[in-house]
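W.,

You were right to be curious about this one. When I first looked at the sequence I had no strong expectations either way, so I just let the prediction run and decided to look at it fresh. Below is the sequence, 281 residues in total, followed by the output.
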Amino acid sequence: MFLGTIVLGFVYLLSALILFMIGKLLFDLTHRKFALREQLIDRDNLAFALAVGGYVLGLTFALGGAMSGPSISLTVNLIDIFLYGVIAIVLLNISVWINDWLILDRFSGEKEIIQDQNCGVGAIEAANHVAVGLIIYGTLAAGGHLLQVCVFWALGQVTLIAAAKVYSWMAPFDVHDALERDNVAVGTAFAGMLLGIGNIVRFAAQGAFVSWSQNIAFFASVALFGLLLLPAARLAADRILLPSGRLTQELVHQDKPNIGAGIMEAVVYVAMSFLIGWSIK
């Protein structure tokens, strides 16, 4: 029994590693303007390392959803892992384009990461990858099929875009301008917000499928709840965690932006997302 479990575990791990290789291959094919080795080894590009690290984590969560779904047989399980693993890889790469086009719409995220080595933008792209991976995980862990995965991925991506717009609207400073000036503190806070929203969407998508109308209605209500609580989360970080200071002052109105303050704001968003998810479970 124990030996059989070890052998099965090895088979599943090997399948996951093969999918990681496929993921890297697709990443290389869709980013021919630069080489991963050049950016990581020759240029020591930390911003690029953050973005690629987020891609790896996002893929890990997505594959985790496929591997934690209902177990039928070894053959069926492997087919599901490879089918949904490839789908997850494709969706993650599409999310890169969406992130560059709609979330960071006032400048090129790729340029900021590759040419300027902007770690704030690298953190945001990493968070977007992880958020998408969490969304895919939530759908697959609930036993979702291909159409459900694609629909809830699309709804989740719309929610991430909406959250980015709400965040930019509620911030008392120009978020994109701060990011373009390589403000890592603002990028870190923004990334935490995306992670929090992605985690909330994971909870929203993880329930058992009843019907399209019921599941989409539940998804929409949870996503809206999360979006409405964004200002409350930032206020909590501002008034509770930094009682003697203000986030805006620490993030943008200093010669050297306070990355620690950005981290604290990011942590509040992620913590709030878990509390929301556990509350609605």
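Here's what jumped out at me. The first helix runs from residue 2 to 30. And, maybe more interesting for your project: The chain has 13 helices and no strands.

Coffee later to discuss?

I.
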